[in-house]
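Running log. JK asked me to keep both predictions on one page so they can be read side by side. First protein, sequence followed by its tokens:
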Amino acid sequence: MYISHGGPVVINPSTIIGDNCNLSQFVTIGSNEGKAAIIGDNVYIGPSCCIVEDVVIGNNVTIGAGSVVTKDLPDNSTCAGNYAKVLNYNNPSRYIQNKYLE
């Protein structure tokens, strides 16, 4: 996991985060009831994103700045908005640098 800028990041303890996840400043991954998100490998989460409740974010996903994620996001997608939706499937994990390789 990589936190790209100094600044507050809030992560619920029930969150599951895969390899090579890049969190930007002011990201909140939370849950009001039950468990929080499951985040796949090679995921970029832009500044000021909120990931709310028990959602599944697939592998190789880019989430644009200021997005509010309330539903599952599929593998290999670029998503953004309030509420986040898939914009395209064009090179979504391009912002993940220095990937950990076993």
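And the second, directly underneath as requested:
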Amino acid sequence: MTTTDELPYPSGWFYLARARELAPGSVLTRRFLDEDIVLHRTRGGRLRAVRPHCPHLGAQLVAGGTVAGEHLVCPVHRFAFAPDGTCVGTPDGPPPCARLEHHPLSERNGLVLAWYDPEGAAPSWEVPDTARAGVVPTAAWSTEVRTHPQEIIENTVDYRHLPVPHQAAVQELDPPTTQGPLLHTRPRRGPDRPPALRHRIRADHTFLMAGLGYLRVELPLPSLGLVGYLWAMHTPTGPRRTQMLVATACADLRRPDATGASLPRHGLHRAFARAMLKTAVGKVRQDLRIWNTKRYEPRPRLAANDEGIGLFRHWARQFYPSS
């Protein structure tokens, strides 16, 4: 392998939409891997994602597909498909033996994720929930990046680049550790911050990677009584094409359920989430020039203090076919 074009699509969970975009009866189109998929929620609330062509005569479900009760209806011949994909009705005559192909889905913290495996295997692991119930993003931003998802999320353990484009530095509190498809690390932002700010607000981040498409950052701020959350998700949409979403949320640090805050506190949470997003997007924009022009190095010449990248590369192998 010499370029990111030769990295295959990794297995794992990848972001498709925010749950609030899918009210009962709604239909959305999203790009996933090399094709569009149809994402819809039945009137009863069941969420489904199917491949874009009707098995009857190949009509596109993307433009004009509708939900009737619990069924997705083809816009051309009005064939109806049940939530399990089975054809259950036609305008005239009994339904044929036909079935829509589905992508497994999961909802986590108001985010809709789709599963991919190159061999077509069923999901073998799940993305962990946050410890605090009811946390959902209240601010979000998205962009296309001309690179592979692995190149983006690898940035998380590349501490050496931070002083250059970001004029920032971190202290590693806990080195990267892996647990199956999960990778944890805990850095502290601080050596470069003003002393007054550094002593008043501790910036200890907990990073969780779940596969190569999902990164969640938790930032407790005890002096403010708040905890911030940031998600960075990377969905492959084609060769060397990744749709990146950055989303943020905030909650009360000592409240186990994020839904129980008062209206004034909700306003504070939303304002803090917007501030977090603005800061994060600024950092991402600084990285875009690098991601959009770099190439993948399959055998990087690692230097001292690059242990995290070596560990990350070894961990990432599990998401690709062994060949």
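Observation for JK regarding the second prediction: Residues 140 and 247 are 4 Å apart (CA to CA).
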